[in-house]
């Protein structure tokens, strides 16, 4: 089953389960709408993009973020839920020309939801989880990211005890950009270590 087929299959199963739970009176359609609204507006990769952008322009903040990630994030004016069960054990690592970081969860699909949103299908795939540990360079190359042999690749196993995310390298050509402008080019994949931040030619 390819990814698009799997997505459609899972979406149908979720819809059927949702309908059954509403029919049984376990949840209401309003509850479902509230959860969807929360992930669309409050918890998602737009938060992580703001954090990364601030780290790029504020060296002191970046240092605090690397030393005590939840404390640094708490200083920002971000939506509710950033310090909840999924966010209180977050830890940031920084990509540099000498070190490239990749996050994976070898046990299941633990993920820093407050800053990255919901995990993609490939992050939960058992094959990815196993191969990312054994052969991270090869996996990254399949993602279109060819890491030089001179760059060390570090793989971080995220879990319920600690949820990792990556501060990607700031791309060239963004000197003088505001935090708001920088945040627009930060992607979830870059904060997972599966991609680098690219500057669109139209910007």
Describe the structure.
- The chain has 203 residues and is mostly helical.
- The protein folds into two domains: 3-40; 44-192, Nitrile hydratase alpha /Thiocyanate hydrolase gamma (Nitrile Hydratase, Chain A), CATH 3.90.330.10.
- It is built from eleven helices and four strands.
- The strands form two sheets. It has a two-stranded parallel ribbon. Strands 2-3 form a two-stranded parallel ribbon.
- The protein is globular and about 55 Å long.
- It catalyses: an aliphatic primary amide = an aliphatic nitrile + H2O.
- Pfam families: NHase_alpha (PF02979).
- Belongs to the nitrile hydratase subunit alpha family.
- Its EC number is 4.2.1.84.
- InterPro entries: CN_Hdrase_a/SCN_Hdrase_g_sf (IPR036648), CN_Hdrtase_a/SCN_Hdrlase_g (IPR004232), CN_Hdrtase_asu/SCN_Hdrlase_gsu (IPR023900), Nitrile_hydratase_asu (IPR018141).
Structural domains: how many: 2
Q: Outline, from the CA principal axes?
A: globular
Residue share in helices?
Answer: 40-55%
* CATH C-level label of the largest domain: Alpha Beta
Structural class of the helix and strand makeup?
A: mainly alpha
Beta-strand content bin: 5-15%
EC number: 4.2.1.84
Protein name: nitrile hydratase
Catalytic activity: an aliphatic primary amide = an aliphatic nitrile + H2O
GO molecular function: nitrile hydratase activity
Sequence-ordered SSE layout with sheet pairings:
Layout: H1 3-23, H2 29-41, H3 45-57, H4 59-67, H5 69-74, E1 90-94, E2 99-104, H6 113-116, H7 121-124, H8 126-134, H9 136-142, E3 152-157, E4 163-167, H10 179-183, H11 188-192
Helix pairs in contact: 3-4, 8-9
